[in-house]
Prior knowledge:
Layout: H1 3-24, E1 109-113, E2 132-135, E3 141-142, E4 147-149, E5 154-175, E6 178-185, E7 194-204, E8 209-214, E9 220-223, E10 231-239
Antiparallel strand pairs: 1-2, 1-10, 3-4, 4-8, 5-6, 5-7, 5-8, 5-9, 5-10
Amino acid sequence: MTSLQTWPLSLLLVIAVHWSNSLEDNKIPSLCTGSPGIPGSPGLHGSPGQPGRDGRDGRDAQPGEKGERGERGEPGQPGARGLMGDRGDPGGKGERGTPGECAVAPKSAFSAKLSEARTTPLVAGDAVRFDKVILNEQGDYNPETGRFTCRVPGVYYFAVHATVYRSSLQFDLIKNGNTVASYFQIFGNWSKPASLSGGTLVHLIPGDQVWVQMALGEYTGFYSSPKTDSTFTGFLVYSDWKNSAVFA
C-alpha cells in the first residue's frame, strides 16, 4: 500500500486518540456551555467503620490534696476467739525477797498449887486460891484471886487435881460465873488422903475468866501438905487469833 493510501487511516487514529483523552478528562467537547446541574440527593449513610485502636495511656497527674478526716465508725462485732497459743518459755528467776518476820506461836500456860496455909477454911461460893505458882510465864493467872484471865483467844484445857482429906469434896470449874464442869469425891474417914482429878476443854476469848469454886459448904476437903498437893493447871491448846500471824 502506498503512503497516499495510508494517510487517511492515520488521520483517523489521531482523531480517535484525541477523542478518548477528552472522555477520560470528563470533558466532552461542545460547541456551547450549559448551566450547572441540580445538586444530587444526599447519599445513604455508609456502614459503621471498624473500631479504632486504643489510645496511649495518659500521663500521671499530680497527687490531690489530703481530704478531711472522716467520722469514727461504729465498733465492729467481736471476732471469734482465736486458738490458744503455745505455752511460753519459763520466766527468769525473780530476785530474792527480803527476810520476813518470824512467826511466834501464841503461848499461854500456868500451874499453881495450894499452900498449906490455904487449905482451911474454904467457904462455898468462894474461888479457890491456888497461891503457890509453879508456872506462870505470861502472867495470865492471878494467884491472889485464883482466877485465870484469857489474853489469847482459842481453846484451853483446864485440869484440877485435889487431895481429899478430913471431909468430902465437891467443886466446880467456873467460866465467867457459869459452871462448866463439877467434880465430887466422898471421904470415908480413911486413914490416908484420897484424890480427885478432872479436866475439860473450854473456848475463851480475851477477857474471859476461869477459876475453881467451892460447891457446897460441907464438902470442902481440899488438902495440901509437903507430901501431897492440890493443883490447878491450864494451857492453850490452839489459838483462833486471826488478826496477825505474829503474836507477842
